[in-house]
Amino acid sequence: MAKPVLVIVGRPNVGKSTLFNRIAESHAAIVEDVPGVTRDRNYLDAEWEGKRFVVVDTGGFYPDPEEDLFLQIKEQALFAVEEGDVVIHLLDGKTGLTPSDMELARLLRASAKRVLWAVNKIDGPTREDRIIDFYRVGTEELWPVSAATGYGFDDLMDKVASFLPGYEEEIADLPKIAVVGRPNVGKSTLVNILLGKKRMIVSSVPGTTRDSIDSVCIYYGRKYILIDTAGIRREDKTGYTLERFSMVRAVRSIARCDVALIVIDASAGIVEQDQKIAGIVEEYGKGAVFLLNKWDLIADPEIAYEKLGRELARKMWFMQYAQILTVSALEKKRVTKVFPIIDEIIKERNRRIQTSELNKSFREITDMSLPPYRGRVVKLYYITQVKTAPPSFVVFSNYPSALKDRYIRHIEKILRKNFSFKGTPVRVYVKASEKEKKR
């Protein structure tokens, strides 16, 4: 099952991002950042009182001029209704209630979602008289809060947690494969071919798939769960789209999977949304395959493959470990070749390297030329593998801060040269040795 979703909505500058950051800081599962890939990330794993969920900040979605505010408000409400299990409508206790607030509240009340109306910028009990006018939104309960100082925050989150549905980690008994990609790249067509039956409705209109759909697929006796990502763009009657919220649906599928099939329209090349989806896969540490779909539309495959290969290397520099496969879902070409690749990636993701083998690589690692740190010699003591899926290693040093990103990447390069880890991310951390900690 997918994690429940908490959505924060409200007009611009009411403090949504501040509240989002406060909620995110309370979570246990930290999503690693990949510089330059997901600059506009507006979602994060979070936890409160044992309840695990995804929190979504809609605060970054205001690139349009002010006259489009009501369209933006409608978009937020539609997104909250479609994606959120619980919605916080954040209001501004300093500027007071506005027509925009009333319109968004009306749309949210019409939904069947659990909605909490929170009045922000209330710094203490003496300021709570500001909230009286906000009862006009049509609620019997308001939550005074200061996202900046934390006043009222615990009470608000306790109420949120009481509304959130339960979530349990899925048992990894079958490999879970998420099929992700931007609109209209052929995800559902691909899944239908892999399943050998018309499981999803397929249309040329982006966003046909409304919900994530799990299907059991059998290939030569081996079973897989295919997760078809929910349609990540849908137009309302005004023509205003929800495309900017698409990453949340991708996150919910990617978070559950072992391997992500990143479907790319080969005829269109690599676009920004492809990069963002790939960035999510990397952040969550999942195995990855780039499926260059619609290969039947390519006039000169040899030249196109070389060109796309260069483009992938440049734009997907953070996922050079990912496998690449050209397919045509429409013409059923090379589609089933993905299963041996998936099997290989899952094997690599769960691979554990013996300490004796790691020590051989460590000799290469210690040959790195490390500059002095604060006038002292930097020493690397040993390396150990701490987990799998993805393979994760810790290098112990006297000065962990001395090992910058380029050295971490070099260590990863050495590990890949010796142990492959094809198709899966590798995590390398540097920590102080116990001897150094006691100094």
Description:
The protein is an alpha/beta fold and 439 residues long. It has 3 domains: 5-163, Rossmann fold (3-Layer(aba) Sandwich), CATH 3.40.50; 176-349, P-loop containing nucleotide triphosphate hydrolases (Rossmann fold); 355-437, K homology (KH) domain (GMP Synthetase, Chain A, domain 3), CATH 3.30.300.20. Helix content is 31%, strand content 21%. The chain contains 12 helices and 15 strands. The strands form 3 sheets. It has a 6-stranded mixed beta sheet with strand order 2-3-1-4-5-6, with helices on both faces. Strands 8-9-7-10-11-12 form a 6-stranded mixed beta sheet, sandwiched between helices. The longest helix is centred in the first third of the chain and has 15 residues, at 69-83. The protein is globular, with a radius of gyration of 24 Å. The two termini are 47 Å apart. Mean pLDDT is 82; it is low at 26-41, 60-65, 198-211 and 231-241.
Features:
439 residues, alpha/beta, Rossmann fold, GMP Synthetase, Chain A, domain 3, 3 domains, 6-stranded mixed beta sheet, 12 helices
Layout of helices and strands, plus pairs?
Blueprint: E1 5-9, H1 16-25, E2 43-48, E3 51-57, H2 69-83, E4 86-92, H3 99-109, E5 114-120, E6 142-144, H4 153-163, E7 176-180, H5 187-195, E8 213-219, E9 222-228, H6 246-254, E10 259-265, H7 272-283, E11 287-293, H8 301-315, E12 323-326, H9 338-349, H10 355-366, E13 380-387, E14 392-397, H11 405-419, E15 427-432, H12 434-437
Parallel strand pairs: 1-3, 1-4, 4-5, 5-6, 7-9, 7-10, 10-11, 11-12, 14-15
Antiparallel strand pairs: 2-3, 8-9, 13-14
